[in-house]
Amino acid sequence: MWFPKKGVMRVTFFAICFILALCSVLELSSSSENNGIKKLALSMENSTGFVRKLLASPEKGGAISRSGTTCSMDNIVILQGPGTPLPSGIPTYTVQVSNVCVTGCSISNIHFRCGWFSSARLINPTVFRRLEFDDCLVNNGDALGAGDSLSFQYANSFPYRLSVSSVTCN
Question: What's the mean pLDDT in 7-26?
């Protein structure tokens, strides 16, 4: 009985793994909406903004689209992904905050749940700052217009699980 050489088996194994990985990346990129927003490498742990879903909420008067038929905190999408580590080796993370409302609503006083957020890299406090435990303010409380986004980078040994806690619809 004929068996392939070890080298041939190893190459075949890696080729199959590469093809499977490529298929999963293509499936991921084709299933997510881009809408002109720069794609970031996302971890599955950060589910915030990873997949845009249609929300059906009978309690709130029927189906409400994540892309915004009414103004709500669901119109704020957080994308977070790894960046280039600092020279000291501390990992960095890039955060992009977007207002995906399509009806022209601007949203201000955007607050995140952020735990004891801190960064080894200085962040412009008018862009993002922690006010107290689990309360961070975005854009100095100023409005983020429909379709607008902002981004910042922080450095810490682990990523923070950021989520929207409250907003003001203008």
Answer: 43
